[in-house]
Design goal:
Layout (H helix, E strand, L loop, with lengths): L3 E14 L2 E14 L3 E5 L6 H8 L7 E6 L4 H6 L3 E4 L11 H11 L4 H14 L15 H13 L5 E5 L7 H18 L2 E6 L2 H7 L2 E5 L6 E6 L14 H17 L5
Helix pairs in contact: 3-4, 3-5, 4-5, 7-8
Length: 260
């Protein structure tokens, strides 16, 4: 069995507000293994992004346990254990693409020669070689998001946290980037935690799909994919794909409260 990269046990997070406590996560138990591609799916406000932010030490748990590579999230952050890709590319418009990708390397004080090598490798991984001197505003939305992924890959962390990175893109571009992301995952053997609202995207990309309920966010189902590693887009029309998608949809329906 592969080593555990992310391990959560009875994880809870409650926000204290003027209107009273808001229970964002409740008793989350989950193991993400090395090399997994895990998608988190659920309705808005169910804690998908919150869970990613707890992994990244951007939010603090209220109770329970969570480790990243056996470390606390705080220690894992200091050890540069992960790269984070946000919903929007979050590229600085006054920096070229290569300078945007260089930003974490500059902060981590990599030598100039090492920076140059890592930037070139990251650009190649996301098929943006030749665009290093362009500015973000000169690229399409899909290319900007690929540059954001390159920035997260530049310092070669084993864990990639992706918070709905393709949600704002049109379906054709999204399909293409889904294909590219699977190729990237196969080439790098990263462990990926991926937040999405799309059932087809979750099923197409993942080795494991985590279905979450509305607030307080709970894990209602964990589905191990039976799809082969090689996944052309046409696989989405197959009975096996549709069977998994049906289970995800039923899990979402069963966990949803319509009383609010």
């Amino acid at each position: 069995m592969q080593a555990s990269v992310v391990s959560a046990k009875d994880l809870c997070l409650t926000y204290q507000t003027n209107d009273g406590p808001v229970h964002a996560l409740s008793d989350v138990n989950l193991d993400v293994r090395k090399g997994d591609f895990v998608s988190f799916i659920g309705p808005s406000g169910c804690g998908k992004t919150t869970f990613l932010r707890v992994i990244a030490d951007l939010e603090k748990k209220t109770s329970g346990e969570i480790t990243v590579n056996g470390l606390t999230p705080d220690d894992a952050r200091k050890a540069r254990a992960y790269g984070y890709v946000f919903q929007a590319p979050a590229l600085y418009p006054w920096r070229t693409i290569e300078k945007n990708i260089a930003l974490p390397l500059e902060i981590m004080r990599y030598a100039a020669a090492d920076q140059k090598k890592r930037i070139a490798e990251a650009l190649d991984l996301v098929n943006l070689s030749g665009f290093e001197k362009k500015f973000p505003w000169q690229l399409s939305g899909g290319m900007q998001q690929r540059a954001s992924i390159a920035r997260a890959l530049a310092f070669d962390a084993d864990l990639l946290l992706m918070d709905e990175p393709f949600g704002a893109l049109d379906e054709i571009v999204r399909d293409h980037l889904n294909e590219e992301l699977l190729k990237l995952w196969a080439r790098t053997n990263k462990t990926i935690c991926f937040v999405t609202h799309s059932i087809p995207e979750a099923v197409y990309l993942s080795t494991k799909i985590v279905v979450m309920s509305p607030r307080p966010g709970r894990v209602t189902d964990v589905i191990d994919s039976t799809l082969p590693a090689e996944r052309p887009l046409g696989i989405r029309e197959t009975p096996e794909f549709l069977k998994i998608a049906h289970r995800v949809r039923e899990g979402l329906r069963a966990g949803h409260s319509y009383e609010e």
